[in-house]
Structures are given as structure tokens and as C-alpha cells.
Design brief:
4-stranded antiparallel sheet, 7 strands, 206 residues, 2 domains, Phosphorylase Kinase, domain 1, 47% helix, alpha+beta
């Protein structure tokens, strides 16, 4: 499916099958299936249909993808809802681990989140991890909307760590993904890409 990066994801309008690839694939599969089951009814997450040793099948959830809506100029609505949803996640005492508009589906009429996707990196952790990564996604992939990040932070409605802490969290996540790619395909394109992104992130000013 469009917007899938780490894994292979396919859907038919009723079900979505995600096949896990790369280092610790089985662990990430287990993490995602566990969190989806725990969070059902507490957050908008897809319903688990079937789990195999290499794949997770969930019920299809209709909605417009966050990145598509950003490209359509609806950044204010998307980032506001991202802040609201993240506050709900953090009130449960967990970190999504890959949070941002790239992993949310929205009702195109109301811009309410219909699904929070990709829980394979979820864990107990510090809120700054998700706050920083959502900011990183916008700065890296949608820089034209970076000025609207205040909508995200305002809607989060809690203390936002200073830039130095957010940038440190961004760099930590970039290093982790660089390590992931280096273990998956040493010297490959993914490793080169994340080295470049790490350097770029380090160069950013508040």
C-alpha cells in the first residue's frame, strides 16, 4: 500500500496484510499485534484479524492519509488533530515510536482521526520521542508547513520540551534508523539515506 516503507503492506478494501521485514521482524510484529489488541476501544486503531509468524492482518479502516491531506493544503487541520491524538496516547503512558501524519488516517469531512497505524515501535518512553518525531516528519517531508507546527504543539495541550531536547530526540531516532538499515543491508541505500538525514537534522536551528 502507498506510504508503507519498512514493511510490505497490501490491502483489498476489507483487510490489510502487513508482512514484516528486516532486523527483529518477529519482535516488531509481536509488539504491533499486542498494542493493537490492548488499545482497541481506547484509541482509534485497526482491529486485528489474524496473526501469523511473519504477518499481521487487520480490518481495513477508511480514511484519508495524513500525508495526502498535507499535500492538499490541509496542514492546519491535520496537525491540530495530530496534537490531540498524541495527547490521548500519552495519557495512557506509552510512546507510539513512529508518530506523525504519515501514520494517521483522517475523516476527510471532519479531520478526526479514524486510525492510528504502525505500532511496531511502541514502548513505554518519554513523550518527547513522539513530539519530536512528528515535528521531524513535517520539517523533513513537508517543510512548507513547518510554520504551522505550533498548531500541533498547542493542540497537544501539555508541556512541550525545548528545541534542544526535541532535536536530541530526533537525532537519537535517526541514529536508531541508521543502525537498523546498516544491519539490514550494510552499505546499502537505506544506510546512505539515513546518514544524510542525520547530518541534515543536526544542522537544523530552532
Amino acid at each position: 500500500m502507498e506510504h508503507g516503507y519498512t514493511n510490505s503492506t497490501v490491502g483489498d478494501g476489507a483487510l490489510v496484510v502487513k508482512c514484516y521485514q528486516g532486523p527483529e521482524a518477529a519482535t516488531r510484529l509481536g509488539t504491533e499485534s499486542r498494542y493493537l489488541r490492548r488499545l482497541r476501544g481506547r484509541l482509534p486503531v485497526p482491529r486485528v484479524h489474524q496473526v501469523t509468524p511473519t504477518s499481521l492482518t487487520t480490518r481495513f479502516v477508511p480514511g484519508a492519509h495524513g500525508q495526502d491531506l498535507l499535500d492538499e493544503g490541509r496542514a492546519s487541520e491535520v496537525l491540530t488533530e495530530c496534537g490531540r491524538v498524541l495527547a490521548r496516547i500519552h495519557r495512557l503512558g506509552i510512546v507510539h515510536g513512529d508518530y506523525g501524519p504519515q501514520n494517521l488516517l483522517f475523516d476527510p469531512a471532519t479531520f478526526e482521526a479514524t486510525a492510528i497505524l504502525d505500532w511496531e515501535w511502541a514502548h513505554p518512553g518519554a513523550p518527547v520521542e513522539d513530539l519530536a518525531w512528528c515535528e521531524w516528519i513535517v520539517r523533513m517531508h513537508h517543510p512548507e508547513h513547518a510554520a504551522l507546527l505550533d498548531r500541533f504543539f498547542t493542540a497537544y495541550a501539555a508541556t512541550v520540551p525545548p528545541w534542544s531536547e526535541r532535536q536530541a530526540a530526533m537525532l537519537s531516532r535517526c541514529r536508531a534508523l541508521l543502525d537498523f538499515c546498516a544491519r539490514w543491508e550494510p552499505g546499502g541505500g537505506g544506510e546512505k539515506l539515513w546518514r544524510e538525514r542525520l547530518d541534515l537534522t543536526a544542522s537544523w536551528a530552532a
